[in-house]
Design brief:
The protein has 9 helices and 5 strands, in the order βαβααααββαααβα. The chain has helices at 14-23, 31-37, 44-53, 66-73, 77-104, 136-147, 151-159, 164-170, 181-201, and strands spanning 2-8, 27-30, 109-113, 129-133, 173-176.
Length: 202
């Protein structure tokens, strides 16, 4: 089984591209979904987060209060790195298990959808790498509208990720998302055709 990568900054349109890939029959392992799974109520991952950041990151029902945790770590590099040290190994192991299961079921092509592939030094493991990019001003407005946060908070989230130039420098295939949804879907289809060509050639 070949696994290629899909990455991009927050609110870049990456999830829409992943949905197009799924519609075209590509198995997608979503690192964000895995990240939620490893901190489910009662999990060892959630216990580690609470130990590191305190019970204030828990909701009344004992689940993780994601907004409280985000407020705690975004804009604080030390806190963010502490959280990453807790989550990233667990996300990696769980993702690997999901890919193994796909391979055992005869899957030939899969996609790893992960926002921090470049930041975590994993780009070489997931070639070809598709990078979705959008103008920062557009990302900012999308985050504010989607998540109901202030521009200050939205900028902190953007600053916590690698500069888009670093992602683009690592890309094999680039999708520039600066138009409408129909245009993005067309670009995603073109990118997937390119991925399949590269995989076949490799």
């Amino acid at each position: 089984m070949r696994v290629f990568g899909l990455t991009g900054g927050i609110a870049s349109g990456k999830s829409t591209v992943a949905a197009v890939f799924r519609d075209e029959g590509v198995a997608v392992v979503d690192a964000d979904e895995v990240a939620r799974a490893v901190v489910e109520k009662g999990s060892e991952g959630l216990a580690a987060v609470v130990e590191a950041f305190g019970a204030a990151v828990l909701a009344a029902d004992g689940t993780l209060d994601r907004k409280a945790l985000a407020a705690r770590v975004f804009g604080d590099d030390d806190a963010r790195k502490k959280l990453e040290r807790i989550l990233h190994p667990r996300i990696g192991m769980t993702s690997a298990a999901r890919f193994a299961a796909l391979g055992e079921n005869g899957c030939e092509l899969a996609c790893y959808d992960a926002a921090l592939l470049v930041e975590n030094g994993l780009a070489e493991m997931f070639r070809p790498l598709v990078v979705v990019a959008a103008p920062r001003a557009l990302q900012l407005s999308r985050i504010v509208a989607r998540d109901g946060v202030s521009e200050v908070e939205a900028n902190a989230r953007l600053d916590a990720q690698a500069d888009v130039g670093k992602k683009l420098a690592a890309a094999d295939i680039t999708i520039w998302n600066d138009a409408d949804l129909a245009a993005l879907r067309d670009k995603a289809l073109q990118a997937l055709t390119d991925v399949r060509r590269r995989v076949s050639a490799g």
